[in-house]
Design goal:
Blueprint (H helix, E strand, L loop, with lengths): L7 H26 L5 H18 L11
Helix pairs in contact: 1-2
């Protein structure tokens, strides 16, 4: 039997956070499209979503890439 590299509870938490992030990004795009957010507000909220998703990942997978 293969052993899972991460505990199941941790994997479920990562999946849940990923789904929350997807939903938050969709809502953020909706608000931006409706001109309910300015560029600064949009970027700030997007960055907060990114940091939240990053904080849930295991330490070895936490990387930030500048584009």
């Amino acid at each position: 039997m293969r052993r899972c590299p991460r505990p199941l509870g941790r994997m479920v938490e990562e999946i849940a956070e990923s789904i929350i992030g997807i939903l938050q990004r969709a809502e953020l795009e909706r608000l931006r499209s409706a001109n309910e957010l300015n560029v600064d507000e949009y970027n700030l909220l997007l960055e907060e979503i990114d940091w939240r998703e990053l904080s849930v990942l295991p330490v070895e997978e936490r990387t930030i890439e500048e584009i």
